[in-house]
Amino acid sequence: MTPFNVTILGSSSALPTSCRFSTSQVVRMNEKYLLIDCGEGTQMQLRRYKIRFSRIDHIFISHLHGDHFFGLPGLLSSFSLLGRERDLHIYAHSEIQDYLNCQMRYIKGDEDFKIIHHPLNFKRTDVILDNKKMRVESFPLRHRIPCCGFKISEQKKDPHLLKEMIEKYDIPIADRVKIKEGSDFITSKGDIIPNSRLTKPSSPPRSYAFCTDTMYEEKIIPNIENVNMLYHEATFADDMKDWAEKTYHTTSKQAAEIALKANVGKLAIGHFSARYKNPKILLDEAKSVFSESYLAEDGKVFKIEN
Ligand SMILES: [Zn+2]
Questions:
Q1: Which residues of 148-167 are buried (b: 16+ CB within 10 A; e: fewer)?
Q2: What confidence tens digit (pLDDT) does each residue in 210-265 have?
Q3: Which residue, 11, 53, 91, 181, has fewest beta-carbon neighbours within 10 Å?
Q4: Mean pLDDT of the chain
């Protein structure tokens, strides 16, 4: 099966700690790597976890709070030093362009690769990347400043052609494509072999959603419904619910409630306040609502599976 997984590069909130970097993660689908958020030190984490920089062509920035994008200048500088030539797509608030234009003046070897900006829409759901293999949607979260969540889905796959049937009926290559699209096969003697005998359905497309930073917001549920895995921020424990609301963040229990209501496969919580030296309390609270809850830890790899 095509690899589809998420490596957590940073799981802390505003302040990085000695064992947690600021928010960043890499989603791998087959040989494509998507970077979501790029907190300070992201390139160090990419090195530590042996993720090849050159495979990253798309970077998604949820919002312009420093702990979610201050790693970009360093990463872009390294891209330049490594001789990158391929275009780099950055999906973020349009203001990031001013910030990066200023930074790029100090990055050696300018113009060696092109940055293509894709301004995010913070008012409604938007399809921001759609190709043969994957589809990425952005949708508004509820934070102090404009902020987007992202959903990454595999495209629907063609059914599998059964090898024994190809051999049995000696099906020519041209017909195999049509069968994959749903046609029956007519043998040279004129017998009709129904499509259902020739194929077996492929596994349903997998999907992953990323939601940070946000306060408890049920409006996002239609965007993340039934995903195989949800990453949701859980900055505070339940006893700080009022503070979470005031600062536009979520408690671990609330994150689990969203996971439950959206019927997701599993939940990874992250973006922990630096006050939690051991976030076990956050995990326990999440599990009391939604048993398939896990802690995001820097370096941890989560498989996205049906
Ligand atoms: Zn924020």
A1: bbbbbbbeeeebebeeebbe
A2: 999 999 999 999 999 999 999 999 999 999 999 999 999 999 999 999 999 999 99
A3: 181
A4: 93
Task: Tell me 235's DSSP state.
Answer: -
* Other C-beta atoms lying within 10 Å of the C-beta of residue 255: 32
Distance CA 263, CA 203 (A): 19
Q: Which residues contact 116 (CB under 8 A, 6 or more apart)?
A: 87, 88, 89, 90
Q: Is 226 left (phi over 0), alpha (psi -120 to 50) or beta?
A: left
From ligand 1's centre to the CA of 56, what distance in Å?
24
CA–CA–CA angle 91, 30, 80 (5° rounding): 50
Q: How many angstroms separate the alpha carbon of residue 175 from the centre of ligand 1?
A: 53
* pLDDT single digits (tens) 40-59: 999 999 999 999 888 999 99
Q: How far is CA 250 from CA 61, 154, 161, in A?
A: 19, 28, 46
Residue 218 Cα to ligand 1 midpoint, Å, equals: 18
Q: Taking a C-beta distance cutoff of 8 angstroms, is the pair 33, 59 a contact?
A: no
Q: Point out the catalytic residue in the list 37, 67, 213, 298.
A: 67
Please indicate whether residue 67 is annotated as part of the active site. yes
Question: Which residues hold their Cβ within 5 A of ligand 1, which is an ion?
Answer: 65, 213
Question: Against a cut of 0.70, is the pTM above it?
Answer: yes
Q: Check: CB of residue 260 under 8 Å from CB of residue 230.
A: no
Q: Which parts of 21-90 fold into alpha helices (H)?
A: 42-48, 72-81
* Rounded Cα–Cα distance for residues 295 and 9 (Å): 13
Q: Cis peptide leading into 213, omega within 30 of 0?
A: yes
